[in-house]
Design brief:
This protein is α/β, with parallel strands linked by helices. It is 40% helix and 18% strand. The strands form two sheets. It has an eight-stranded mixed β-sheet with strand order 3-4-2-1-5-6-7-8, sandwiched between helices. Strands 11-10-9-12-13-14 form a six-stranded parallel β-sheet, sandwiched between helices.
Length: 387
Amino acid sequence: MKKILIITSYFPPETGAASNRIFHLATGLENQNFKVSVITPLPNYPKGRVFDDYRGKFKQTSTEKNVTIHRLWLYASNSKNKLLRLFTMISYSISLIWFFIWNKIPETVIVQSPPLLVAFTCMLCLQRKKRKLVLNVSDLWPIAGLELGAFKKNFSYKMLEKIERFNYKKADLVLGQSQEILVHVKSLFPEKATFLYRNYPDFELPELKEPSISGDKITIVYAGLLGIAQGIYKLCESLDYSNIEFHIYGGGAEKEKIVQFISENPDLPIVYHGEVTRSELHNALLCYDITIIPLLNRIYGSVPSKIFEYAKLGLPMLYFGGGEGEDIIQQHQLGWIAEAGNYSHLNKTIQSLGKNKLSLKNRTKIQQAALENFDFNKQLLKLKAVL
């Protein structure tokens, strides 16, 4: 049985697309007769502090669904202070180096990037002629950070670019969640082996039904990280509420601002539901007419994994983020597009919707498109062939 190690900064019980993606990859490979182990920090995301059940521990090893999981210490923080966030990554990198020294590492290792520094630590320490290093790139850093306004083109940015290029250079295979990521990698290293690995979810398709929230107003739902990149606070401020209700699930940096905005505007039909488990969320989402997938700014290389998850749920989408995600929505007829950053166009698009366009028949078509085009196991078999 071939052994494979996955190194990631996010893993359940943490919530969100990143942890779900790596969890499905790990259990999927295990089902394909790999002996899978995972290295991840003690759970801390997105709250920025180690979860209560893991506090006071330096390391924990457990087996879940036949996958061995090594949880390592880090200094947890989600502070906006760049030095504190850098120290968080350095602390995890130190724990990784310590683990590498005292443990035997398999010949095939999948390394999640970003964070760039963590990936750099792995690529630097684990390079060997007989070892295959696979870099799983979910976002293009530091480019994405520049587009989000987190970075400026200075000395630090140039250093991050050098780290990025080092990581690509040392990888034997680069997995990218979007074609834009693979195009970028090929522009730097034309001969580099690449593989398009979309963030397809792995769960049973639910039985579809008409949305259970009645009334003339269209019910719009957002579920996920309430971070700066998603711009949900700006969305709350900018939506035209004349014919909609807006429902929000999740947590993150903007949570308190959103909750405060709702309390200061009690006449607006906005409901914050807090954080729920993934299974609870799936059941809840089926009750709404349409979901919105926003990005505050178009981010090159980014394709929200929500697209594939919501398609399996048969949930119509309103995409407001630009880039490759637009192409996927349009190609597979999964919903509607609003011009990224143009809130006037977003409101006009919403006004053009009617309950007849959000019918059970339309949901069934969306789910069928997901069944035909976003199959996790088919993609996994193709990946298995190149590992």
